[in-house]
Amino acid sequence: MNGTLRLAILLVASMGICGGAVADDWQLAKNEDGIKVYLKDVPGSKYKSFRGVIDIKADVQTLNDLQENLRVACKWLYACKELRLLKNDGDDTWVYMTLQLPWPVISRDMVIHVNTQRTDNGGLVRSLNAVPGYMPPVQGQIRVPELIGQWTMSPRSNGTTEVIYQMRGEPGGSVPPWLSNSFVVDAPMETLRTLRAVAERQPTRASYP
Predict the structure, then answer these.
(1) Sorted alphabetically, which Gene3D superfamilies does this protein's record hold (predicted)?
(2) pLDDT: is 25 or 54 the higher one?
(3) Residue 156 CB partners (closer than 8 Å, separation 6+)
């Protein structure tokens, strides 16, 4: 795909996205500014999954471009400090990301394998999986050992796009409960809010590609 990236992002969540529907075991944690954030317990983990849902006045291609431009993407991704391409192979991309977390927590890094698929309705699904052994450990960073996530973008008839951002993960090391509880709400809320602000400033496209 011309060397541009197939990207998506960030810590902590679960699979099972089905349009805008939310399964019974997802609990609404926050509904603010047109963004809904749902949380779900993960068996065997002390960290919750999150799912953020928003409608954005932009088409799928615009949102795709904002994810594939890593320099721009790191600006709207919550807690992102660095985001760079490691490898691109068709629908598959490997990216390296570092997260700047509040003191005194040591920052985290991760390698994410991203697979991108177009849907029949002109939408986009990006699946994310951490591959911690892809590259050697980096001094001063704690490698995220587990991450499973997904971005789903579904065009609506009114010209907007429904965006669902969902994740589950294990951050590695020790994370205070106050931070983990805050992160699973703040990450989708702030990421989607900032993405919307950036996307809705972009020039309007005449049609989907």
Answers:
(1) 3.30.530.20
(2) 54
(3) 55, 162
- First-to-last alpha carbon distance for the chain, in angstroms, is 14
> Crossing angle, helix 177-199 and helix 60-68, to 10 degrees?
120
pTM for this model (two decimals): 0.85
**Burial of 137 from C-beta contacts in 10 A (0-12 / 13-18 / 19+):** exposed
> Which residues does 104 contact at the CB level (< 8 Å), separation at least 6?
none
How far is Cα 180 from Cα 92, in angstroms, rounded to an integer?
Answer: 29
Instruction: Give the pLDDT of residue 24.
Output: 62
**pLDDT tens digits along 117-142:** 999 999 999 999 999 999 999 999 99
Nearest alpha carbon to residue 67 among 147, 135, 124: 124
The tens digit of pLDDT for each residue in 38-52 reads 999 999 888 899 999
Alpha helices in the chain (DSSP H): 60-68, 70-76, 177-199
Contact 63, 161 (CB under 8 A): yes
183 Cβ contact partners less than 8 Å away, ≥ 6 residues apart: 11, 12, 79
Domain 27-199: give its CATH superfamily. START domain (3.30.530.20)
The better pLDDT of the pair 117, 106 is held by 117
**Would you state the structure tokens that stand for residue 120, as one six-digit string?**
């029949």
